[in-house]
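dumping the sequnces here before i forget
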Amino acid sequence: MKYAALVIPVLFLALFVYAAVRRVKLYDCFTDGVKGAIPLVLSLFPYLAAVLMLSELFEGSGLSALLTEAISPALRAVGVPPEIAKLLLVKPFSGSGSTALLSEIFSVHGADSYIGRCAAVCYGSSETVFYISAVYFAGIRRKTPAKAIAVSLLANLLGAVFGCLFCRFL
Amino acid sequence: MNFVFALVFLLSGAMFLVRDPEGFLPALLSGGEKAAALSLALLASYCVWLGFFRVLEETGLAGKLSRALFPAAKRLFRSDDREALTLACENLSANFLGLPGAPTPLGKRAVEKFCAAKNGYAADVLFVLNATSVQLLPTTVIALRAAAGSSSPADILLPTLLSTLISTLLGLLFLRLLSPKRGKFA
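..and the predicted 3d for all of it:
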């Protein structure tokens, strides 16, 4: 994993050397880009706040635990261990919540166990769909992209099912 | 999203009411607190990456990259908008490289441009690609497994890559099946 650490510094240095050769005004140009950061965060903020409050409610009320119990038999039938059902349910809402769950699964079942590896793959293969939709569609006047969200959730779920299958022999 | 928000909010709120009425407000506040903290973290990362990408645009490298990917992107997004397609290609490249925080500002601008051009299909495609993104190097998972004492923390690379490939392909396939031929403004 040592080489992975080189990617970002090399990328920056290579670009800046190339920009200097092309006589780009680096300071003016870089600051011009940074100018966009504050309006971007401002436009995101209300949606972030709403989604994160919702995910706290979802988790804290016990609704997520209840749903976990409800869906785990169905997931077990397709080969997903029930311990992972909760991870799959929380991930679309909250990245930090699912990270906490993942390390909990590692400490209870061990990182090299079948359940631990399944959890790792499920975590890595699904995304925080509701969070991404809040960010990408923030402030855009358009009907809710319900279709895109539903499609992504279903695709991620199926990806997780295949992931657990791959863990059996990879 | 209005429906999901109302549904989850009402159901969770009702459960709080029955089980733990005093926990309701603290839960909301903790969500707000997380939003504030996350916004600061995002601001920091956007400063770095928006500066970086502005330089990338100015050198003309971004244009070269998008020209190479242009024919494929045109068909994938059913769009002719050069500027939006460039942003989308940059977003996907940043995603693929796993640069933390870099894809979001690009993706957001691309979605804005697609929507302004009334191309809802393209915005949906970009969203699905991001929401099922192919994971080349799941750094967080590897770090967590190493911390939990795994004997080979990186041995989930292949299953993760395969399952994300499957989810991305399925996502695109479903979207195509559900979308009318001429990417209508949905």
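Chain B has a mean pLDDT of 85.
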